[in-house]
Amino acid sequence: MFTVDQNEKLILVTNDDGIHTGGLRALEEVASAFGKVVVVAPKEGQSGMAHAITVKTPIRVNKLSETANSIHYSTNGTPVDCVKMAMNRLLPRKPDLLLAGINHGGNASSSVIYSGTMAATIEACLYGIPSIGLSLLNFSKEADFSVAKQITHQIIKETIAKGIPKGVCLNVNIPALPKNVIKGIKICRQNHGVWREEFEHRTDPSGYDYYWLTGTFEDMEPQSNETDEWALRNNYVSIVPVQFDLTAYKFMDELKKWDL
Amino acid sequence: MFTVDQNEKLILVTNDDGIHTGGLRALEEVASAFGKVVVVAPKEGQSGMAHAITVKTPIRVNKLSETANSIHYSTNGTPVDCVKMAMNRLLPRKPDLLLAGINHGGNASSSVIYSGTMAATIEACLYGIPSIGLSLLNFSKEADFSVAKQITHQIIKETIAKGIPKGVCLNVNIPALPKNVIKGIKICRQNHGVWREEFEHRTDPSGYDYYWLTGTFEDMEPQSNETDEWALRNNYVSIVPVQFDLTAYKFMDELKKWDL
Q1: Average pLDDT rounded to a whole number, residues A75-96
Q2: Which of A24, A89, A239, B33 qualifies as a FRET site for A71, CA 20 to 30 Å off?
Q3: Do B251 and A165 touch (CB under 8 A)?
Q4: What are the backbone angles phi and psi of residue B106, rounded to the nearest 5°?
């Protein structure tokens, strides 16, 4: 039966690609070196669900396994639902660390807004838990996480040693490259970039139109060497410290002059 | 047939409560005083969908009506999908303004993270469109939007007159109070607050467990008079200027000292 002592770390692991993915297994393996692990993850892929919460349908939880060192739960909810459910119903106590990922595919620049992985990370951060979201720049189901695991280990070790202030979490993106090609880890700011969408038009067998969302990313400041996009393009691992106050402070004084 | 001249304003209207709601109708009525209106909204309620995008199922679009001054489309997508679809497939040109709402229920403080209304607003802002998300602090389907309409008119008028810098949009929350009780409009920062969730446990007729997400909001800084929560509690309309760079700049120097 799963137990966790007060002197042991309790680590919550989740993702948005679903519980049966290589990225989640890789992250769990790394996490287990630092403490007891509870996995609460969507039963299926929830990519692009961002910070969505489930309010119109009930949440179901399945306990898939339990050992002395780990428990696995899947839910029909979003990544944020998984964090909320873990915090409120499933964990024996407040966790010492939240790890989300390792995502199959990057979450740099404005992708942080659409990412379920980073939403789960931010949600745990709102609860005051040190939180790290991790992504590998390889969308393949069969992606190789061996290098990403080493880097993840290093980042978790430093996070535990140094600590993250409340209200801040980390967005880690790892290039899908051999270890000796990766130049190091770079602390970055979020790149200013946008997804240029196109909707691919098709017609169903009954003659009705439908559309698939597709898109390509555009870096709006390719010349800057301070951004996560630049770091990744230049074979660095990027870490962006993330917070969730969206206030545009610089525009407040101007706005106060409006005739309202 | 719908047409829009270059000297006329083209206004995109959406929401997250669904196309058949009083708040959307109220917003469209106000918008029509400023230009031609295209409504692209979810066919059903999408509350809590945040910045979710639909990648696993195709998007369908229905044109519900078209006059010389307005067109109405519904989609099976999220609020962000609606904005993307409008920008890429449905609008005759880039709109001059995006209005989202009027939401049935508030979106102040950290609720901005879960809100489909504010996600649509931020999405349009990413496209470089002046964008305003509006919410009335009344969840009722039969909410009275008459006062909210007057305030919305005033804010749109000033937005068009003064302009918003690219990368900034507005989060407007309106107390559900008579006009003479509302003290005015206050420019605020996003309150630091959290939702304290509880999952209500039930058992289905087959004996299986399920949970409904419920919660209460907690203001983490009730003493501050600079926040949207304070303004609303004190009978002001709140406007928070919003941007989408999540970088925690203040923590960057510290993070650069880590042994990574």
Answers
A1: 96
A2: A239
A3: yes
A4: -75, 155
